[in-house]
Amino acid sequence: MKSYRKxxxxxxxxxxxxxxxxxxxxxxxxxxxxxxxxxxVNAMHITASVFINDDESGLHHDFEIWLEKLAPEKPHKQxxxxxxxxxxxxxxxxxxxxxxxxxxxxxGKLDFGPWEQIFYGEYDxxxxxxxxxxxxxx
Length: 138
Hints:
The chain is an alpha+beta fold. It has three helices and eight strands; from the N terminus they run ββαββααββββ. The chain has one domain: YjbQ-like (Jelly Rolls, Sandwich).
């Protein structure tokens, strides 16, 4: 059994953003040399998420509208957490979208269903954050 670990560093230009990180995860898989196993991809920050969905701009817009209805950024004073910071909504959005994904590796490829891609979701950006890629297998 082999193990591979890499950190991807992401610095978004906006407070909220969705980034397709599938190409970077594929590069990690190639570098690992693992042909059968699993890959774990997780956000290493409490105001960011990693999730699987379709790479379609209308859907990404819909995520933004839906999340903003569930956990609106403003007014900041609506959240107790915001006595110290102004990012309580980002913590809540991360809870909804999730921390990590696990994908099977089969014959050296990510074993996705149709249209599936891995995304990094940023909810309190404009600073450097990391994503962990951990691959285990043979």
